[in-house]
């Protein structure tokens, strides 16, 4: 199984266009690497590729990834579709970049598919797509030899969704377990986690690689960095540190390669020389750059 980290930043990217915090200014000065908004791609055979979320930066990300370039025919593509973890704007708006590509298949939980109904109708006018329930019993098999199951990990509803929006009840945020039929390698992809659960522990326990929500390093990060008064608790992301943080949870799963993604522009993990980066490195947890590839044998 091949996994490419197309983008590794949270919504707004890094540096964020309207932020002059120290980290963003360092990125503008070329002292820290810039990052595009979180998205990944996975393949079981190197020929059939599936997006994990669809970033607003998708066009740039695809252009920077030779494995996802078109060909050999003028309109041929190795991209088969996308798996959405939620309905957040930074995870779904990239679908518009794929308009006109026929026969793509998009998996998402029922509430996500419902709230995207207007966008689905618009995209289908360019070329018919198939929209499937990611939470269907038994999971599903993807072209390229991948078996996938979706698992609820949060209830965060995007801000753009009206409070009384009609549609099916159910989890708004899911993680994916992706297994290679050829090798048995297992990826757990969870870029948005609102609460740690025994089910998530079970997923990580059998994984070879975990791509995990690293949005905020500390619970009070937003308020202390940009003086907004808003902390991570209001945004549906567990922090990395703290007694209930994800770093403590990951310590139970040292057999897997563990990688943080979806890093907010306020997160000190963006600085390779920071004490924060040194701390997670001591625990064997990584932060990789945009374009990094992980191979599971």
From TrEMBL:
Signal sequence, renumbered to the chain: none
Keywords from the named record: PQQ biosynthesis, Transport
Pfam families, per database record: Lactamase_B_2
Chain segments annotated as transmembrane: none
InterPro entries given in the database record: Metallo-B-lactamas, PQQ_synth_PqqB, RibonucZ/Hydroxyglut_hydro
Gene3D superfamilies found in the cross-reference section: Ribonuclease Z/Hydroxyacylglutathione hydrolase-like
All residue ranges annotated as the Metallo-beta-lactamase domain in the record: 49-262
Superkingdom of source: Bacteria
GO biological process, one term: pyrroloquinoline quinone biosynthetic process
Recorded metabolic or biological pathway in which this protein acts: Cofactor biosynthesis; pyrroloquinoline quinone biosynthesis
Role according to the record: May be involved in the transport of PQQ or its precursor to the periplasm.
Record-stated family: Belongs to the PqqB family.
Protein name: Coenzyme PQQ synthesis protein B
Organism: Streptomyces fodineus
Gene: pqqB
């Amino acid at each position: 199984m091949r996994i490419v980290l197309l983008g590794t930043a949270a919504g707004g990217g890094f540096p964020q266009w309207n932020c002059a915090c120290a980290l963003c200014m360092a990125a503008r000065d070329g002292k820290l690497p810039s990052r595009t908004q979180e998205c990944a791609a996975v393949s079981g055979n190197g020929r059939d590729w599936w997006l994990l979320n669809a970033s607003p930066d998708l066009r740039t990300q695809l252009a920077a990834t030779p494995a996802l370039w078109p060909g050999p025919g003028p309109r041929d593509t190795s991209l088969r579709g996308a798996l959405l973890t939620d309905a957040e704007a930074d995870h779904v708006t990239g679908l518009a970049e794929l308009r006109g590509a026929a026969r793509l298949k998009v998996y998402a939980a029922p509430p996500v598919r419902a709230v995207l109904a207007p966008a689905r109708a618009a995209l289908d006018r360019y070329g018919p797509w198939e929209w499937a329930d990611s939470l269907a019993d038994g999971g599903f098999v993807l072209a390229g030899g991948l078996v996938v199951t979706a698992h609820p990990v949060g209830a965060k509803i995007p801000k753009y969704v009206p409070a009384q929006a009609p549609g099916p009840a159910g989890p708004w945020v899911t993680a994916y377990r992706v297994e290679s039929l050829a090798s048995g390698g297992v990826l757990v992809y969870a870029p948005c986690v609102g609460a740690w659960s025994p089910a998530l522990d079970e997923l990580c326990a059998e994984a070879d690689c975990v791509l995990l929500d690293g949005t905020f390093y500390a619970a009070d990060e937003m308020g202390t960095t940009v003086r907004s008064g808003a902390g991570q608790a209001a945004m549906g992301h567990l922090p990395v540190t703290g007694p209930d943080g994800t770093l403590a949870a990951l310590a139970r799963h040292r057999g897997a390669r563990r990688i943080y993604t979806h890093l907010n522009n306020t997160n000190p993990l963006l600085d390779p020389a920071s004490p924060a980066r040194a701390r997670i490195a001591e625990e064997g947890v990584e932060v990789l750059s945009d374009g990094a590839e992980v191979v599971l044998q």
